[in-house]
Specification:
Blueprint (H helix, E strand, L loop, with lengths): L4 H22 L4 H5 L9 H18 L17 H20 L9 E6 L4 E6 H25 L20
Antiparallel strand pairs: 1-2
Length: 169
């Protein structure tokens, strides 16, 4: 596995760009629409968004980029407005981390205990970074489908259309 700092910067930028678009899409729906059970894996648009934020923070803590989240992964934030603020802060922290990485920072192993699996894990650091970004993209795809089904305009997700410069957050 060879993940490089430039990959991390690109993916952190992509994450911030995607979440900025999600915040805008969420603003077009009521809280009730965001919280409606859509028969998705995590139920609603909002609970899926909470899961992504919770998992991002959990992986960031495992990687040494902040504290582990408190609370349940589906109810991490109480409202979409609170989620938006917390998402912004988390994206900024992740982007700052990526922009200050050196190749040596991506070496070694990440060791953790999963409460859900009730066992210990150890994987290469760079593979865990890759998983962090892949996990976000996977679940944002579920949100994309739910937004479309709800009649909202879903974000542009193709990384090739990400702005080269300008604000992403």
């Amino acid at each position: 596995m060879h993940v490089f700092p430039d990959y991390c910067v690109t993916m952190a930028r992509y994450n911030a760009w995607q979440n900025t678009q999600l915040r805008a899409a969420f603003d077009t729906l009521s809280d009730a629409e965001l919280c409606a059970d859509r028969k998705a894996f995590f139920g609603s648009i909002f609970t899926t968004a909470n899961h992504i934020l919770w998992a991002d923070r959990m992986w960031m803590a495992r990687l040494g980029i902040g504290e582990a989240p408190d609370g349940d992964h589906l109810t991490l934030t109480p409202t979409p407005a609170v989620w938006a603020g917390e998402r912004y802060k988390t994206d900024a922290r992740l982007l700052h981390w990526a922009e200050h990485l050196h190749a040596v920072d991506l070496k070694g192993d990440v060791n953790w205990r999963s409460v859900m699996a009730n066992r210990d894990f150890s994987h290469p650091f760079d593979l865990c970074v890759m998983h962090l970004f892949n996990h976000q993209t996977h679940h944002r795809g579920q949100i994309h489908a739910m937004l479309t089904a709800a009649g909202a305009e879903a974000p542009v997700t193709d990384i090739l259309f990400m702005p080269e410069n300008g604000p992403l957050l």
